[in-house]
Amino acid sequence: MYIVQIASECAPVIKAGGLGDVVYGLSREIDTRDHTVEVVLPKYDCMRYDHVWGMHKAYENLYVPWNGGAVHCSVDCGWVHGQLCFFIEPHSAESFFNRGKYYGEWDDQIRFAFFSKAALEFLLKSGKRPDVIHCHDWQTGLVPVMLFEIYKYHGMTTQRVCYTIHNFKHQGVWSADVLSQVGLNRESYYSSPDRLGDNNNAGSINFMKGGIVYANYVNTVSPHHAWEARFSDIGCGLQPTLEVHQDKFGGILNGLSYDVWNPETDSQLPANYGIADFENKERNKKALRERLLLEANDKPIVAFIGRLDQQKGVHQVHHGLYYSLANDAQFVLLGSASEPGLNDWFWHEKTHLNENPDCHLEIGYNEELAHLIYAAADIMIVPSNYEPCGLTQIISLKYGTVPVVRGVGGLVNTIFDVNYDTNKQPAERNGFVFFENDSFALESALGRALRLYHQKPEDFAILAKRGMDCDYSWKHPGDQYVGVYEHIRHK
Ligand code: ADP
């Protein structure tokens, strides 16, 4: 099969979060199964050009119909750690992708509507006719709409679309004017409640809803989150749409690229280690302490890595920090906040704790430091409010860092409580889970983890090594996605 992924991220060249990891990891997995995979991305000014090999022009004069006229674009192509990627660069006054950041601009909906249009126009003009187009999140929700309402009539008749939702919170809700900008000219037809009309805001359209209505298959990134999206307010207003389209909706757990995330081979670590030489993990702990000026003592390191966002349970992170310090543990945080209030809050904490020898808060995005923290920490907390899949807990398992998580979304499908999960055999239990969203619940789970570390270090090490043995590779999700592609291709 020939698959084209259209996405706003692909790690490591463009990564804001898990979406980037997934687009890269899934592409590589499908590619190794003798299918052809190509990825179409925006050419952002701020992407990591050092991760692209052999960049060259792939298409010179691409005129993308836009707003009644056309925008002149060029398309570059290159290999991102073995994955062939195409980067679309518009040459227009709006400078859609030259904003110094990937997201968070006032006109994001317009930027990604343009990108979706340009990606399809590129496929059309360059003669690319994939069996399946796989697109992701609200940024590319208009792709199936335009494919089946416009491009089908230009000869793209056999293409089918798989649409993956990584976060229901951000749906791309915008004024219906954008429709005519991309050439979907019958505004009232597309804005109707059974098409793109937003379920909560009359007069607005919803890109993600368009993706759900028009795609041939829709999934979110874990089975439990698929259930939550349909039957709880986690669906953020899209529950009725998912109900109507339930026959083509499911949950497929994300995998992890073990060629990128593997402590035995990770070139970003001071010391590699595996289950057999688990004691070498200690050398990373020493290196982290030296780097962050933490005291060398026999306390465990509790860590948090992730976006400082309400989704990630920032109040619980804050509580976990002080609980760790009060319970004979060190705490390391690596995170960045896009909301100014949260950013100020964590900067305040950082200043307040500056002299504490057991604590370090690193506010910002740092891929290399993230690798070291995964390798050095003993415990990772993931106290999310909601979590479609979550990669931090899966990466932590591989690095022998015991996860303490809240039982929501994909965390339910990946972490099984060592004391209480009676659905799993003891040998399959790999972490600590709490359910209520309050500080007592967090304390009970984190407290159990810390007590095990302090009182039964051998048992704690067994648990950590058991996590390293879990298989959350792309193999099984890869089988499932190939099954989906085969299924929709023959429709
Ligand atoms: P989300 O996609 O909701 O942000 P995930 O858990 O699915 O969360 O994926 C987060 C990914 O981003 C992981 O690979 C994690 O290591 C990485 N990450 C998050 N914050 C940072 C940061 N500040 N610095 C480096 N890596 C980060």
What are the key terms here?
6-stranded parallel sheet; globular; 17 helices; Rossmann fold; 9-stranded mixed sheet; binds adenosine-5'-diphosphate; single chain; 491 residues; alpha/beta
Walkthrough of the structure:
The protein has 491 residues and is an alpha/beta fold. It folds into two domains: 2-255 and 475-489, 3-Layer(aba) Sandwich (Rossmann fold); 278-468, Rossmann fold. It has helices spanning 18-31, 108-125, 142-149, 177-181, 187-190, 207-214, 223-231, 239-244, 281-292, 314-326, 340-352, 367-376, 392-398, 409-414, 439-455, 457-468, 475-489, and strands at residues 2-6, 36-42, 53-66, 69-80, 83-90, 132-136, 160-165, 173-175, 204-206, 217-220, 249-251, 301-305, 330-335, 359-363, 379-382, 402-406, 432-434. The strands form three sheets. The protein has a nine-stranded mixed beta sheet, sandwiched between helices. The chain has a six-stranded parallel beta sheet with strand order 14-13-12-15-16-17, with helices on both faces. Strands 8-9 form a two-stranded antiparallel ribbon. The protein is globular and about 70 Å long. The protein starts with a strand and ends with a helix. The model has no long low-confidence stretch (mean pLDDT 97). It binds adenosine-5'-diphosphate (ADP). Adenosine-5'-diphosphate is lined by residues 17-19, 21, 305-307, 334-336, 365-367, 370, 389-392, 395.
Summarize the structure.
With 491 residues, this protein is of the alpha/beta class. It folds into two domains: 2-255 and 475-489, 3-Layer(aba) Sandwich (Rossmann fold), CATH 3.40.50; 278-468, Rossmann fold (3-Layer(aba) Sandwich), CATH 3.40.50.
